[in-house]
Specification:
It is a single chain. 24% of the residues lie in helices and 28% in strands. It is of the alpha+beta class. A hairpin with a 2-residue loop joins strand 1 and strand 2. Bound molecules: zinc ion (ZN). Zinc ion binds next to helix 3.
Length: 160
């Protein structure tokens, strides 16, 4: 594969309703490995980060966090998935979202937000298609990772 590009391609991306609010969708095919979009925002201090209630914080390294809450950060609409088709990559203090596989037109873009985000904001309930499938098929879920099992159980009891 060619060297990773950190210049977002000029892909058509659409903000549309998804099953968890708004989401970002591919308006055209995106090839595996392509740089899709940069996650942009305001750089904030550690102090601001601790006080912040933003759900769009992205810690780049120990001394740099960006708050991607502004609407001009189109990448903020990318939802979490445990079976993501994109992944964030940090490059020279900036965050770029790359396609992990070939993405078809109309597909929703997502990446794995990571364990900490999950605990803090998603309240251990994941709305991604992979986790919804697991809830629908408890037998298969039993074979899943321990952490995922816990989530599934909690979700199931809350629904009753
Ligand atoms: Zn999930």
């Amino acid at each position: 594969m060619p060297r990773k590009s950190y210049t977002p391609g000029d892909f058509s991306l659409l903000v549309k309703r998804s099953n968890t609010g708004l989401g970002l969708f591919a308006g055209e095919a995106i090839p595996k490995g392509a740089c899709v979009i940069e996650y942009i925002g305001e750089e904030i201090t550690k102090e601001q980060e601790e006080k912040s209630r933003s759900k769009y914080l992205f810690e780049i390294h120990a001394r740099k966090t960006i708050d991607g809450a502004p609407r001009w950060n189109t990448a903020r609409y990318i939802n979490h998935s445990c079976r993501a088709n994109c992944e964030p990559n940090i490059h020279k203090g900036r965050v770029f979202i790359h396609a992990k596989r070939n993405i078809k037109p109309g597909e929703e873009l997502n990446y794995d937000y990571g364990v900490n985000y999950f605990k803090q904001y998603l309240k251990d309930i994941c709305g991604c298609p992979k986790c919804q499938e697991k809830r629908a098929a408890p037998v298969r879920a039993a074979a899943a990772r321990k952490s995922v099992k816990k989530i599934t159980k909690k979700t199931a009891s809350k629904k009753r």
